[in-house]
Design a protein that fits this description.
CATH architecture of the domain at 394-513: Orthogonal Bundle
CATH class of the domain at 394-513: Mainly Alpha
Radius of gyration: 60 Å
């Protein structure tokens, strides 16, 4: 689990890696591999602090405290236990809080800080309730407090209670031995050597029976001193021999432990190496997969964008086609209305001429002749009048009628050389009057006026596929008087809203439909 840790893991898996560090430390400490345990403890602490695993962090600070305590660094142990207690209370982690209180009570008592030790003991009892370890350590801590306060008899009672409680509840031998050793030390402290020897012998027998060799070594050394002080030299010498044998045994055990530790370290390093190699391989594969996924995502996004563009282009094209079709129908409607208007105008003029002829025939011949002479005289006067002369309404109407007569014939305005002067000549007037009448009547200049006639005629010819179906756009433009193909195309677009080629295309589509 420790070797698998990486930043891309899920939060749950990262927490499992941190728990793996804690469990590995708890496996290494009984093997007295404190350096390795401390290394993994620091790794776990970094994992927890980076990811906010407060409960596991509390457990790891308890581990760190026990390591420092084993090396008799009480100050560092105190800091670690205090941090563990703080984290436990922040996260309502009762198990870790109780362990921290038990550890703090023992360290404070050892350091002679009885006030803090007493406070931790009270909190430990309150928090622990019926927990056997809380009750056991409450007795043991009370003994240390009373002993430091000089209340040795009460301290011995507390140690006796601790021994009895541990035995009654089947606690591990190390707890019973610890209480016996504390009781023996107290007896020795007050010079009750016989009682001290008795307690050390009981503790020593318990250590021998249950294999608590490290404490047995301490007990045997204390017994040698006590036997010597009481003059029991025979027992002192016998104990020295047993102590020497135990030393050899402990040496062999230490050598065996060292060998096992070396083998364990080798296996651990080998497994960690395999895990790291697999992790690196997995990371490379993950990077490749991520790169492939990114490429696929880019391709997918590109395809999506392309699809969206195609849809937009299709919709735009459809909307444009619909708009052009609507515009084409609008132009056809305008041509139809213009044709009907011309027919109505022709009928009106025919009726007007008939009425005028009937009125003229019924009048006096001499009077009619006089009117014709006057009209002729007025007409000649109009042509010869200077440009500053203002035309009368009858003159203006007569000139407009003459212009309309000329523009009825497409052969006139479709000539390339058809100009304002040409039109003025054809209506027996001058260009100034012709331009004035066109501007005031149609609100446009001569060029625009003529171009509308030409484009209208071009539209008719584009619709007439029978006679002009083989004509090109350029040929049709030239046939209605445009000298330039581009000028014809631009003018056609300005007036109809579409190009002549599109107009021709839609005409052929309509014909095929």
């Amino acid at each position: 689990m420790v070797g698998l840790y990486n930043e891309r893991m899920s939060t749950e898996d990262k927490n499992l890696c941190a728990i793996g560090c804690r469990n590995l430390c708890n496996a290494l400490i009984p093997k007295e591999m404190f350096v390795d345990a401390f290394r993994f403890c620091l790794i776990g602490i970094r994992m927890c602090e980076a990811n906010g695993f407060q409960r596991t962090l509390a457990d790891l600070y308890l581990v760190a405290g026990s390591i420092h305590n084993n090396f008799n660094d009480k100050e560092m142990a105190l800091r670690c236990y205090t941090k563990a207690l703080e984290l436990s209370r922040q996260t309502d982690y009762d198990g870790s809080e109780l362990t921290a209180l038990i550890s703090l009570a023992g360290v404070y008592a050892y350091m002679g800080r009885m006030e803090e030790a007493g406070k931790c003991r009270r909190e430990m009892i309150e928090k622990g309730g019926n927990d056997i370890y809380a009750i056991y350590f409450s007795h043991l801590t009370a003994g240390y407090i009373h002993e430091t306060s000089g209340e040795n008899s009460m301290a011995r009672e507390d140690f006796v209670h601790a021994i009895a409680y541990a035995q009654e509840n089947g606690m591990l031998p190390k707890y019973i031995v610890s209480a016996y050793t504390a009781l023996a030390k107290n007896y020795a402290k007050v010079s009750m050597r016989d009682s001290a020897i008795h307690c050390y012998e009981l503790s020593n027998a318990y250590c021998r029976e249950h294999g608590v060799l490290s404490t047995q070594k301490t007990n045997m050394k204390a017994l040698i001193d006590l036997y010597t002080e009481t003059g029991n030299l025979a027992q002192a010498n016998a104990m020295r021999q047993d102590y020497a044998l135990l030393q050899d045994s402990l040496l062999n055990i230490d050598e065996y432990t060292t060998f096992k530790n070396q083998q364990f370290e080798y296996e651990l390093d080998k497994q960690l190496g395999k895990i790291l190699m697999l992790t690196e391989t997995a990371e490379i594969r993950n990077m490749e997969l991520q790169q492939q996924r990114r490429m696929m995502a880019v391709v997918a996004v590109g395809m999506l964008v392309l699809a969206c563009l195609c849809v937009l282009i299709y919709r735009k094209k459809k909307e444009t086609q619909e708009a052009y079709h609507s515009l084409y129908q609008h132009n056809l409607e305008l041509l139809r209305q213009y044709k009907e208007l011309q027919q109505l105008k022709t009928q009106y003029e025919s009726v007007a001429r008939q009425c005028h002829a009937d009125k003229t025939n019924t009048a006096d011949p001499d009077t009619n002749m006089a009117k014709q002479d006057a009209s002729s005289t007025n007409q000649n006067a109009t042509i010869q009048t200077p440009s500053t002369y203002k035309m009368r309404d009858d003159q203006r109407n007569a000139l407009l009628e003459a212009i309309n007569d000329v523009m009825k014939d497409s052969n006139n305005f479709c000539q390339p050389g058809f100009s304002l002067d040409k039109l003025a000549s054809m209506v027996n007037s001058n260009s100034h009057y012709v331009s004035e009448v066109i501007n005031e009547t149609f609100a446009k200049n001569f060029r625009t006026y003529v171009n509308e006639f030409r484009i209208r005629e071009a539209s008719h010819r584009l619709l007439n596929t029978k006679d002009y179906g083989n004509y090109t756009i350029k040929a049709i433009g030239e046939s209605v008087g445009f000298k330039s193909h581009s000028n014809f195309t631009d003018t056609f677009r300005q007036i109809t809203g579409m190009t002549p080629s599109l107009f021709m295309k839609m005409t052929r589509e309509e014909a095929m439909a």
